[in-house]
Amino acid sequence: MTTDPMTSAPMTSAPVTSAPQPAAAGGSMIAIEAVSKWYGEFRVLSGCSTAVSRGEVVVVCGPSGSGKSTLLKCVNALETFQEGQITVDGTRVRDRATNLPRLRARVGMVFQHFELFPHLSVIDNLTLAPRKVLGRSKEAATKRGLDLLARVGLSAHAQKHPGQLSGGQQQRVAIARALAMDPVVMLFDEPTSALDPEMVGEVLDVMVELARDGMTMMVVTHEMGFARKVADRVVFMDRGEIVEDVAKDTFFDRPRSERAQQFLSKILAH
Amino acid sequence: MFANFDFSVIGASLPYLFGQGMVFTLTLTALAATGGIVFGTLLAMMRLSSIPGLTHAAKLYVELMRSLPLVLVIFWFYFLVPYIGAWATGSATPIQVGAFSSALITFTLFEAAYFAEIMRAGIQSIPRGQTAAARALGMSYAQTMRLVVLPQALRNMLPLLLTQTIVLFQDTSLVYVLSLTDFLGAASKVAQRDGRLVEMYLFAALVYFAVCFTASLLVRRLQARTAIVR
Ligand SMILES: Nc1ncnc2c1ncn2[C@@H]1O[C@H](COP(=O)(O)OP(=O)(O)OP(=O)(O)O)[C@@H](O)[C@H]1O
Ligand SMILES: [Mg+2]
Question: Transmembrane: is it a keyword of this entry (chain B) (predicted)?
Fold first, then answer.
């Protein structure tokens, strides 16, 4: 993976509590610019700005209820937002002219609770969207699906139903299902937090490999080990704001905001 | 006490009772159930949509149908539809609608109200995350419903849908008001012709019981087998 100039650029000049940086113009796969969202009176996101470059891995963390999932869902328009703009691979999300299903087809998403389709076999889970959304032939979709199953180490389970698999296996299938659409970017929303501890590793391994292969990833997770290993940058959110948006090492070694320091001490303690 | 009853009348009329009467009953039940589930699913989707007009229209329809006696709906429909049809097509004379078509349409529309409530519960039983996952893969609303939500909802609701179909099977005997001959109609014709009312009505009750009882047993079996492992 190439090091992105943005990653190594000194961030010290940015004010700690305000939106740290403008969206990178050319190389960014996801540009989030001053995004605000309200649920009625309640402001879930306030002026969030950040960017994810091509091939970059950005970890998003923060306390429960800080708006991490909401921000992620705004990126593939599963949630709407009232202010600001998000651009994914050149396509504006908040734009009437944008074909949202087509946009979503290029953005892979992995959920906390897997959300595999329980009425379909594993291989059918992987081929459904490529066939129905991308119009691929059954043969082509199946071939690609089996390749991906092999990649996540689940070739033997193609004909099983999701309910017959362990949580870790289901989440690996879910990752393969997202990859089957050949997405340009992958979003992960706490992919390991619903798993038994002994299954976290197998899922993280798949994600690490994916990152090493150069996939652009935005990952909401509290797995700080994963963040240390593969993240380029860490975005820390609290109460709907992006409080810190810094290089990984800066975040772990010299977190500047008090809120991030508190969060880190809590999460690393247990 | 059965000394002067003559049950041989049943044996002699079996081909008529089943070959015509029961075939009619089962045909009407199957067609109306299929139509009712399709239309009921549409109503359920309307009811759950975010478009207020559709939601209210579906709600009104379901409430209305559920508060009218079926026999009344059959009657009204039979007498009104020729005129509505004439009005809709701009024809001067009432449109001819056969008694069977009229019965089929009525049962479909009526049962759809009940199937709609079952399907609404079925759709609501599917976790929201399933819809999110389908949308995230680029599926349209229609694809999400057709490929992900409805197959699961149908499967979860199959026992209830079949139970409602058993009720429909019993209700079809109301077609006598349109002078159609279903199983019960056939039985009562034989009964009157041969003056064997008690024997024939006893037999008819037994047949209804046997069919419905067996069907409910099968439904319960099915229920145990189709439960989706999550
Ligand atoms: N549909 C909704 N209506 C109203 N408020 C909502 C809705 N969805 C989420 N919220 C609120 O928005 C806030 C942010 O939620 P979000 O799920 O994005 O947080 P999160 O950072 O992902 O938290 P967690 O770590 O618990 O997953 C929370 O306070 C939540 O209660
Ligand atoms: Mg969340």
Answer: yes
Interface confidence (ipTM) of the complex: 0.87
Ligand 1 centre distance from Cα of residue A228 (Å): 26
Q: How far is CA B212 from CA B31, B53, B108, in A?
A: 18, 39, 20
| Six token digits for residue B37 | 């589930």
At residue A19, the pLDDT reads 37
In this predicted model, what pLDDT tens digit does every residue of A232-249 receive, in sequence order? 999 999 999 999 999 999
- Total residue length of chain B: 230
**Nearest C-alpha of chain A: how many angstroms from B222?**
16
Distance between B122 CA and the closest CA of chain A, angstroms:
14
User: Is residue A165 classed as helix, strand or coil in its secondary structure?
Assistant: coil
Residues in chain A with CB shorter than 8 Å from the CB of B147 are: 128, 132
Which structural domain, as residue segments, surrounds residue B151? 25-179
B153 vs A236: CA distance, rounded Å = 39
Q: ∠B117-B121-B123 over CA atoms, to 5°?
A: 115
CB within 8 Å: B132 and A177: no
CA distance linking residue B88 with residue B98, whole number of Å: 17
List the 90-129 stretch of B: residues with Cβ below 8 A of A: 127, 129
- Nearest C-alpha to atom 16 of ligand 1 is from which residue? A67
Q: What is the pLDDT of residues B19-41, one digit of tens each?
A: 889 999 999 999 999 999 999 99
Residue whose entry in the numeric block shows the structure tokens 């299938």 = A173
Report how many domains make up chain B: 1
| Chain A nearest CA to B188, separation (Å) | 46
Distance CA B144, CA B164 (A): 26
Which atom belonging to ligand 1 lies closest to the Cα atom of A190? 27
Q: Does residue A46 line the site of ligand 1, with CB under 6 A?
A: no
Q: Does B227 touch chain A (CB under 8 A)?
A: no
Residue B68 lies in a domain: yes
Is B54 among the domain residues?
yes
pTM: 0.86
Tens-digit pLDDT profile for residues A73-114: 999 999 999 999 999 999 999 999 999 999 999 999 999 999
The CATH number linked to B154 is 1.10.3720.10
Nearest CA in chain A to B230: A163
Kindly state whether residue B1 falls inside one of the protein's structural domains.
Answer: no
